Amino acid sequence: MPSVPALSGWAAQPECPQPRSTGQACGPSMGGLTGSAAWPQPRVLCIPAPPQKSRKGTGMAYLIVFHVIFVLFVWTYWKSVFTLPLQPDKKFHMSYADKERYENEERPEVQRQILVEIARKLPVYTRTGNGAIRFCDRCQLIKPDRCHHCSVCAMCVLKMDHHCPWVNNCVGFSNYKFFLLFLMYSLLYCMYIAATVFKYVIKYWTDELTNGRSKFHVLFLLFVALMFFLSLMFLFGYHCWLVSRNRSTLEAFSAPVFQNGPDKNGFNLGFVKNLQQVFGEEKKLWLLPICAALPGCPYTWRRKGDVPLLPGAARSGASPQPRIPLPRWSSRAGLKCLDAASGP
Ligand SMILES: [Zn+2]
Ligand SMILES: [Zn+2]
């Protein structure tokens, strides 16, 4: 199998450079929302009931399930927020000499040719709508496939999906799994709250319970849980559809352009492989916000053709799905690309 060294290089980002003003407002509101549900819910589940053993046991079971979901919800949210987006490897950046040559050239067609020459050494398969090499003039790099510049983070992000103000982070290659799990556990959290308080709403409605303060908690919980459940349901459903077709949100709006033109299914490898590209190959880890399963999962490659756009990037006898070593990373506090650019 031919090696694909160029894409095996991923740059670590030691610190998050972007301003976080948008999410600074969302963080507390999200925390407040979580707390507003997390505090009254156990109280609601312990609403005064006749001291029967069976009811006590049921209440305890409710509380245990509630806290398991709550921990997963907070854990995935934390990982979505504090996992740094990954930038392209250094080899995608222009060298000093190339940069000087590019900037001193005033003729656009010659500039394009310079980019083509640089990109010959790189495994880039997608182009702009007019057939040019995808180049970020702010980061001064050739964009790898599926990489986009985020104006909020002020950097190019690998497999960028979108910049999410709710997690105050770019959702992309490094944290897309965590983001999806966050949506899923948020849904589950809201659904569980709504389901467990609903019978108490009925009891208040029929005057079986008379505690006025608990009545407010119950109604508030039901309202907030249903409101968020409905809005998250559509978002989660949309992302499930995207994952099943191996598309990012940006690619859903604008199909990636290949040698033969735009192809919205250019990265579609089939349902199972598409899932593996996001969740990893270890199925037992799919529902946990850890990324141990991700290394080795190719994500940029097409199923169809697999023909390089540029003659210099040709890979004779290439397998349709070469395996690309991917980085292992930790949290925002110490994100390290342990493996990434270790290739030649
Ligand atoms: Zn950029
Ligand atoms: Zn961003």
UniProtKB/TrEMBL annotation:
Domain Palmitoyltransferase DHHC: 133-253
Region annotation (Disordered) ranges: 1-29
Annotated membrane topology: Multi-pass membrane protein
Principal localisation: membrane
EC number: 2.3.1.225
Coiled-coil stretches: none
Keywords annotated in UniProt: Acyltransferase, Membrane, Transferase, Transmembrane, Transmembrane helix
Keyword Cell membrane: no
GO cellular component: membrane
Enzyme class: transferase
Family: Belongs to the DHHC palmitoyltransferase family.
Protein name as it appears in the record: Palmitoyltransferase
Lineage: Eukaryota, Metazoa, Chordata, Craniata, Vertebrata
